[in-house]
Amino acid sequence: MRKINIFDTTLRDGEQSAGVNLNLHEKLEIAKQLERLNVDVMEAGFPAASEGDFQSVKQIAETIKNVSVTGLARAVQGDIDAAWEALKGGAEPRLHTFIATSPIHRKYKLRQTKEQVIQSAVDSVKYASKFFPIIQWSAEDASRTELDFLAKIIKEVIDAGANVINLPDTVGYGAPEEYGKMFTYVINNVPNIDKVILSTHCHDDLGMAVSNSLSAVEHGALQVEGTINGIGERAGNAALEEVAVALHIRQDFYQANTRLKLDEIKRTSDLVSKLTGMIVPSNKAVIGKNAFAHESGIHQDGVLKEKTTYEIITPELVGVKSNSMVLGKHSGRHAFRNRIVELGYSVDDGEINRVFKLFKDLADKKKEITDDDLVTLLVDEKVANVEDMYQLTSLQVQYGTNQIPTATITLTDREGNQIQEAATGSGSVEALYNTLERCFGISITLDDYRIQSVGAGRDALAEVFVKVRHNNAESSGRGSAQDVLEASARAYVNAVNRLLAVEKNKKLLEKVGV
Ligand code: KIV
Ligand code: ZN
Question: Where is this region: Regulatory domain (predicted)?
Fold first, then answer.
């Protein structure tokens, strides 16, 4: 049985999904959960991309001790220096450097000849090996690269010191058989290939990222890269939970397995979905709401007689709990803390106290507090940013079928000043957002608005995701509350706070000349 390393890039390639912008607290929470999931490597970001990226890679590398943390760098010394500064405090610093190798990228993007591309790649790997014990080198757009050139450059970067060679299907163009054969070709035509591990990294433009990744495993790859829930650039990356469960369920075929704790999959998927605002489709393999639901009579009959008739994956395998425990307004602090620990979260006393208060407030309005509710309260508290510029203090909305919806909102800024405004709109949410726009005093475009319930029932918590834009800066935000309008306002305030935090960092950097 071959052990396949799982390289998670949710925080780098996943965060490149349109409209996703995670803050440091959120990235740290995801990193800690990836550690619990037991991934082998996590790519925490692209340190040279921005000060924010640099700081999050650094903090993650310094916090996460049981997983090798890596950061991305182009084939230039400045990027490698930034990556080293960010990663050097980690338990096992690892660099991920790349250069494009395909004719299209060489000609139009890099404007370099084959020889120049080889030289840049070799120079960067040699330079990186002065600092990093482990270097992964990626041939961007490998699947559209001439095979003989690919073999040549791989040989050179291995001689220069690379330990892992990653062959991405960057634009999701490869077909499984063809992509797999690229690995066979490389294994047969690169003389020093036995010195390295081969890795696969697939995008999902044609919906084949997972199949391509599995084909690479069949043809000799020992590392699979991807993201949780398959999030990422354009159509996303290979969904790691699908790859891992496919390898597990079809061990007989692939003769390979991973070290992932599969029963942490659901929790990881929920956290990533919550913090990125990218809702998992109900029919998504492995983690979708309907993945274990049997609808038709024939299927239900079969499952009742013998589960394996229609169920190849059990919900328990991936951590889907069939009966979640319910707490209520009479539940004490002890039961509350126990449940949070049982759900797998580590919490300090301060967090327990704050979330317990939120729990009690919610329990006054909602009869049964489910695990989903608890996780929502807990995650909101964990990622709450004390540096937020504005807090929502109160809101009032007047709505009637024959009335013009009107909202009145009070915000409190960091200095304790209150800002109160009122405005109308053609609907309640528009009235709310027009009012908030007045409070902030800047023009904001709403690019996306989505709402979902946390669990079932009329009294369920509402969770709202928004994407907003001011000038050319984009931001997303999330808010939950029992009332849909309050959740809508919280999401908007959250998005604008993030926008303002990014603007503030930019201004600070400009001031110090970065
Ligand atoms: O898709 C890709 O080619 C990448 C590289 C940077 C590895 O993400
Ligand atoms: Zn990628």
Answer: 391-514
